[in-house]
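Quick one:
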Amino acid sequence: MKRAEIIEKLRAFPYDSSQYWVITGGAMVLYGIRDEATDIDLGCTNEMANRLESEGFLHKITPDGNRWFKLGGDIEVFENWLFDTVDLVEGIPVISLCGLLEMKKGLGRPKDRADAELIEGFIVNRKKND
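Output:
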């Protein structure tokens, strides 16, 4: 999923944007670190998770006790998954670069370690250009 498609889907997303934020690969695409992502992963507040559950979305409980929802084929929502803060990218709430880096390092999978290197390089280049 390319940047324009992510933005289009989230602008049409029927939930309050103060209740969710883009994380992982989608965040990397919105920041311009990567060209595309396979899906859109979101973090959300307890309030939004309660609403999703009340609307009948099936969920699983994650090892940390929070809920995980699958909305359609390409949006996954993780309750309370946030490191650092949220920034706005074209009006879309997105985990901060520092939070994204911390998240990717914490996941520790080979693909996440590679993503962490890309994010670090992006941050360094951004600082050089400021």
